[in-house]
């Protein structure tokens, strides 16, 4: 991995840390949702825009030749190296004063994810990875779960209002039929990071976007998890499905939910 990417990664860690402090300062108290809806159950808060603008400005100052893409403003700069940010992943949780949300910042070299940072400040956790250099949680190396029996596994599935309810129920039933324990936590980036660190054994979402997964894809690869070909299958330009799994149950889970890992 080039020194240019390692230099950017180290600088980005500081940028994300400061962005997390801003999000913490702006976080709402527990209670009813604080924000507006882009569509049913798809929340937007003032913090989403503020954090994205903060990261864009800082990265642009540090690396003006780099591209930048955010969930809220889209692609605002172009470059071979491109930063992809979800300013608040888990906005529905954040808007209600819950803890399971994060800032996700990935770096791509062309179409290849090469570095990622996922910071969940209310959980006190920072996931980091650089391609070829391993994956880490709070500085400690992480690996995907060693589980090999689906009946002992914990699988999370993300919910989206863009997916028909019947499809969600069908996939949940398939997970239950494996004997696995289902979960749904409201943050795709954290869920994928937890597959990387072995806290859970799989994550499925039927429609998810690049900004949700750009940082996590590097984590998963470096941690030894199996992942569906998100980028190859259209994830660079549109929301599509993703499946990530511990190697020992990957084939069984893939067959059960009908999502290829090849």
From TrEMBL:
Keyword presence, NADP: no
Assigned EC number: 3.1.3.25
Organism superkingdom: Bacteria
Protein name: Inositol-1-monophosphatase
Homology family: Belongs to the inositol monophosphatase superfamily.
Positions of Mg(2+) binding: 71, 86, 88-89, 212
Gene Ontology molecular function, alphabetical: inositol monophosphate 1-phosphatase activity; metal ion binding
Pfam family, one: Inositol_P
Single Gene Ontology BP annotation: phosphatidylinositol phosphate biosynthetic process
Keywords: Hydrolase, Magnesium, Metal-binding
Signal peptide (from-to): none
Cofactor requirements of the protein: Mg(2+)
Catalytic activity: a myo-inositol phosphate + H2O = myo-inositol + phosphate
